[in-house]
Amino acid sequence: RVEMKELIPHLGELLSVVLVSIAILGFSKIKEWLKVKEKGMDTGQVDYNNRIHDILVETRTLFDADRAKLFQFKNGSHYASGSSEQKLSLTHVVCAPGIANPIGLETYLMDVRVSFLTSFLSEIVEKGHVIVDIDDIDSKFENHSDIVFIRQLFTQSGTKCFLASGIRAGKNKLLGIVFVTWRQCRRIHSPAPILAKCEELSANLLN
What we know:
It contains seven helices and six strands, in the order αααββαβαβαββα. The chain has helices at 4-7, 11-37, 44-62, 106-109, 118-127, 144-155, 192-206, and strands spanning 67-78, 84-95, 112-113, 129-133, 161-168, 174-182. Helix 3 (44-62) packs antiparallel against helix 7 (192-206). The chain is globular, with a radius of gyration of 27 Å.
């Protein structure tokens, strides 16, 4: 039987062992927490976003547009059939001086299902670009859901006319769509400048 008085000289050592054990356990927990935090934003993302922003600024300026927007495709979950629930979301936007960002419209601009835009996307795939006057949109697309959804997407921000062009990665893959928009209708003589900018965006998105 060990008497308390015999343990007293060793209490300091025991306490040290306990504290060291607690510290080791604490550090391991902190290490695990830091591993989770490593999944946060890579600082290289800042440079990436700056490059995208600069290209959009140049695109907006070329067309003297009110806004230039980049929507990117993303794969969602999968349906029971196995098909992908692909979506389109606004990821970057630049505005002319005095033109407001579409803040507060995130509900309309995020996670847009591509199945709502079949006629619109078909034209993007076939022609590479689409020019739309919102007032004449009823005669522009065959699919009524496209008409309703595009009108909802753009009239919320006061858009009257837009030019859209697909960003391709090879022949059969679209990475996203660039929109340049105006609050007043404009005659667009050639979409060539936006097609060139889409090639720049493709290179940067894949980098």
